[in-house]
């Protein structure tokens, strides 16, 4: 376990998070659009990405939500009738929680590290604000925090009053006329190419 206090806490883990090969789990009330784009990019490479975030109305965060929403809808052509074959579905699931219910900041990736603390998944939080984060990198610690994230993932979904929007792999598969199993097979092939 390592701790960091001050500005620039993102220097201690963001690069590794964005280079994840298997999964990235993010829980943060606010997300910057550029970080949303990066998550979508790695999800398009087949990395499993799960995001818990809020429905906060702050403009930059709303831009990030729009990045996620657009990425999960197939691009269409010919008056919206045909799916553009160049569109790659991202391996991304998104749960947007009503802002009054989400305060957690938690990042887990590839069973290599788990990060918790005060920093939101924003440029401001990672680089400019004075923040405190704890980075766990021992396998048993990462495993426990991953379990915690998955429990939060489930709890927010089960507590229907907390949920604003949900985008699942079932939604993406349905939009492109595939089963979830076929979609997961596509993601596996993408990861094998990397």
Topology:
Layout lengths: L1 E5 L7 H5 L4 E5 L5 H12 L3 E7 L4 H13 L4 E2 L4 E2 L8 E6 L8 E4 L3 E5 L5 H6 L2 E6 L2 H20 L4 E5 L1 H7 L4 H14 L1
Parallel strand pairs: 2-3, 3-6
Antiparallel strand pairs: 1-9, 2-7, 4-5, 6-10, 7-8, 8-9
Helix pairs in contact: 2-3
Task: Give the key terms.
eight-stranded mixed beta sheet, Endonuclease, Chain A, 194 residues, alpha+beta, two-stranded antiparallel ribbon, 40% helix, 24% strand, 7 helices, 10 strands
Task: Please describe what this structure looks like.
This protein is α+β, with helices and mostly antiparallel strands. It has a single domain (2-187), classed as Endonuclease Chain A (Endonuclease, Chain A, 2-Layer Sandwich), CATH 3.30.870.10. The protein contains seven helices and ten strands. It has helices spanning 14-18, 33-44, 59-71, 123-128, 139-158, 169-175, 180-193; strands spanning 2-6, 23-27, 48-54, 76-77, 82-83, 92-97, 106-109, 113-117, 131-136, 163-167. Helix 2 (33-44) packs parallel to helix 3 (59-71). The two termini are 30 Å apart. 36% of the residues are buried. The mean pLDDT is 92.
State which percent range the strand residues make up: 15-25%
* Whole-number total of structural domains: 1
Q: Roughly how much helix do the residues carry, as a percent range? A: 25-40%
The helix count comes to 7
Strand order of the largest sheet: 1-9-8-7-2-3-6-10
> CATH topology, what is it called?
Endonuclease, Chain A
Reported for the largest beta sheet, the result is:
8 strands, mixed
At CATH level 2, the architecture is: 2-Layer Sandwich
H/E topology pattern? EHEHEHEEEEEHEHEHH
Distance between the termini: 30 Å
- Unreliable stretches, pLDDT < 50, 5 or more residues? none
Work out the radius of gyration. Answer: 17 Å
Say which CATH homologous superfamily is assigned: Endonuclease Chain A
Strand elements, count: 10
Q: What is the molecular shape?
A: globular
Which class in CATH terms?
Alpha Beta
Based on secondary structure, the structural category is alpha+beta
Average pLDDT confidence is 92
């Amino acid at each position: 376990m390592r701790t960091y206090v001050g500005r620039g806490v993102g220097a201690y883990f963001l690069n590794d998070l964005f280079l994840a090969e298997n999964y990235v789990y993010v829980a943060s009330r606010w997300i910057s659009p550029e970080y949303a784009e990066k998550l979508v990019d790695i999800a398009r490479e087949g990395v499993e990405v799960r995001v818990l975030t809020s429905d906060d109305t702050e403009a930059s965060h709303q831009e990030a939500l729009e990045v996620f929403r657009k990425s999960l809808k197939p691009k269409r052509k010919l008056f919206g009738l045909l799916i553009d074959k160049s569109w790659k579905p991202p391996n991304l699931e998104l749960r947007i929680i009503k802002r009054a219910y989400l305060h957690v900041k938690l990042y887990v990736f590839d069973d290599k590290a788990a990060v918790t603390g005060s920093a939101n998944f924003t440029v401001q939080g990672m680089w400019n604000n004075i923040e405190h984060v704890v980075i766990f990198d021992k396998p048993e610690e990462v495993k426990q925090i991953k379990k915690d994230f998955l429990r939060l993932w489930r709890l927010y979904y089960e507590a229907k009053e907390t949920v604003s929007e949900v985008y699942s792999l079932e939604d993406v598969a349905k939009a492109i006329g595939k089963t979830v199993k076929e979609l997961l097979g596509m993601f596996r092939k993408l990861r094998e190419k990397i």
